Amino acid sequence: MAEEELLQRKIKKLRAEGKYKETIENCYVLIELGNKLKDYKSLLVAYMNLVASYYCIGDIEAAFNSIESHKEICDKYGDNEEKLLSYNSLFLLYDHTKDIEKAKNILEKSIELGKNLNKYNIVSNGYSNYSHICIIQKEYKQAIEMGILGIQMANLHVPLTPILVLRVKLNIVKAYIGLKNFKESKLLIDEMINDPILDSYIREKAHCYDVQAHWYSKQKLYSKAFESFSNAKVLVESYNDVYLLKDIQMERSKLCESMGDINLAYKIQKEYILLLSEISKSEIELVALKLQIKHSMASMEKKVNTDYLTGIYNRNYMEINTNKLLKLACENNESIICIVFDLDGFKSINDQHGHLFGDEVIKQVSKACSSILRENDIFARFGGDEFVIILEGITLENGEKKAEQIMKTIRNLNILKDGKHIPITVSIGITDNLTCAAKYFNELFNVADLRLYKAKNGGRNQVCAVN
């Protein structure tokens, strides 16, 4: 089995085991390998697992960054199933950040694409999640409508999977309770609580008791509500969802006051304080883990994004980030300059003086150019002795001046071999996105690259900015 396939399996296993730090580290290894092999499937797997892992440790910003990278690759090389995965991950992130409108929008896209792919289980979950969002907005009638559609889609899924239906029904019940339709909600609750399928799905069973408890509480049947919350508590403790447990303990505490049972209230308050301490400790550990991951990832990301010889950006980083810049520039009608250059007669330098000296020339050229570029300019080694510079916020005319400065800076380098000065010159091609109507890096680069070869054919050691 190929190295990348073994790494993909390892990543999925680590994430399933909840080893998120190790998962993230191996994802970056897979990204490096995927870039090297131009294996876009590996890149998509790596970024999607990064999204899930960062989400699980609560680093939502990093999760959003990873989904953006996944989308960039998916738009060019992914299939519709990859896009569907991307939509589902985005929903989780928007739901977490309470960005309701974006959550709804992405669910609509997911549902439409899921229908086209006949992925009725995903469509059913999409409608269920839409119902959940409607409940948050107290749009209970729409929540029920979405729930009914979710059940219809679940019944189309092959093989028939009853738990899909039950998950949707949970939201329908909550919506009925929101509408104070206690008759319909009670019928559904009793149906779900007695469904033998719950014996295999502890989380769903806990949620059924939780919603039953809320129903009893709304009816002021406090002792029955307390009993249902207690049943839910036992189940939730078995899989350690501390945040749901916190909500349940709060409700149990309130019910003790309503029942007038002071001794029980005292006991539950002690349990609640202990749980809060556990949550606080867990959150501190999570912050420490995030900091630890950020520290180790900083060096890994630098390795993934930089050229091993020169320390400047590599081709992959430049392509991804230039595409992002071009997208924004297209929306705002702004200029992005692309300068492409390579060393004149570099093969002869290698042949005469050896490849190690050639490497030293490459490094000195990189260092010299870096010294005259702005911090936000993208300077990358495209391959061999070819370099690309991406400039934003300047005109093509000023871009040409910068190209002339680069040419002069390199020409003035004092590179010695055995005490003898070795002259270095470059040929440069330059363009901008506005004059060549480029929306993607490849389109921009191709024009500048053609002009570079025109500069070569014109005698070298010059800048070409015309076709």
Description:
There is one protein chain. By secondary structure, this protein is an alpha/beta fold. 73% of the residues lie in helices and 8% in strands. A hairpin with a 2-residue loop joins strand 5 and strand 6. Helix 2 (20-37) runs parallel beside helix 14. The two termini are 48 Å apart. The relative contact order is 0.06. The model has no long low-confidence stretch (mean pLDDT 92).
Features:
single chain, 467 residues, alpha/beta, 6-stranded mixed sheet, two-stranded antiparallel ribbon, 20 helices, 8% strand
The Cα radius of gyration reads 30 Å
Write down the oligomeric state: single chain
**Largest sheet at a glance?**
6 strands, mixed
Distance between the termini: 48 Å
Strand content: 5-15%
Please state how the strands of the largest beta sheet are arranged side by side.
1-3-4-2-7-8
Class computed from helices, strands and strand pairing: alpha/beta
Helix content: over 70%
Poorly predicted segments: none
Number of helices: 20
| Overall 3D form | elongated
Average residue-wise pLDDT:
92
- Give the strand tally: 8
| Series of secondary-structure elements, N-terminal to C-terminal | HHHHHHHHHHHHHHEHEHHEEHEEEHHE
